[in-house]
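Sample entry (336 residues):
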Amino acid sequence: LRLRAASLSALLPGATLVDHAETSSGSLLLADLEAQQVLMADGRILVAFPDPARVERSAGVLAALTGAPRRLLVVGAEAADVMPGVLSLKALESITWILPDPGLRDFLLRHLPGISTDGRLHILAGDPAALWTDLSSQAPFDAVWLMVDTPTSRADDRFVTAENVAALARLLGEDGTIAVPAPGAENYAGPRLRLALGSVVAAVAAAVPAVRLVPGEEALVLGASRRGLLQFEAARLESLYLEMRPETARLDRPGFAGFLDKARVEGADALVADLLQDPRVSPSSLDRPVALFFNLLVRAEQESENLAGLMESLRHRAGILWAPLLVLALFLLGGV
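Predicted structure, serialized as tokens:
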């Protein structure tokens, strides 16, 4: 316990340990930090609460962008940050949330505000592929939010493979949408970051007929089961947001217009078109974790241009041996 407290003190000076757990997802810590509680997973902040204004805005934006869903499927632990905001949207009739393991589910049920008492929320634990029967019985969903961390391990990468995204897309209704956060932003995507972003865009484009990129500091890839559903007009998004009947209205038309500037939207659309034409861009698959490779390449570039260049050279020269070399790269970068 003292070791965990010392580790927490190094990560968050001034924080006080409240609870901890070891799960198959990693080490979980809950800490008091000034007026908030912070939940950490393997040294990174998963969620800080209470912060109702921020999480309700984030959930409201996602709900509007994905067509004001009534039946929502959420996949991934990263959704812990917005789930209290999701539950504040009263028009939602059903929320199914998939977490990677029962230990994380139980820890969140103990500590994340509101999730243990809202009857609309159903939490499943395990690999989505193993839960296919349960998910199929609940389909169709109006929207799927794939809320997973930027891949830094094979376990992360499997969530953004073409196979997994396609399986989730098959759970959508006729007017369904899917949202997947991705690395980078539309107004800055260097050559390597561009390929990391492109792997997610390609996976979504392979699964559904329409794909767009939401402009912003962090990319959000949207897909839809038919063309014409993904509209970014501020007035329409405000209307969809209000349809969700938020407990407290925290978004308005100027707010949507602010981050959906016409020039940035056009730039994001142009980037998607370019990525889908780029022969170097491909989605991850179960046997070729390219999203993982490109994200590790971006990390390597931050450490050393020489290391990034070496990884690229080895991949091009190694042929079928590139996967074992990726394991070496993971070791060098501290991945698992």
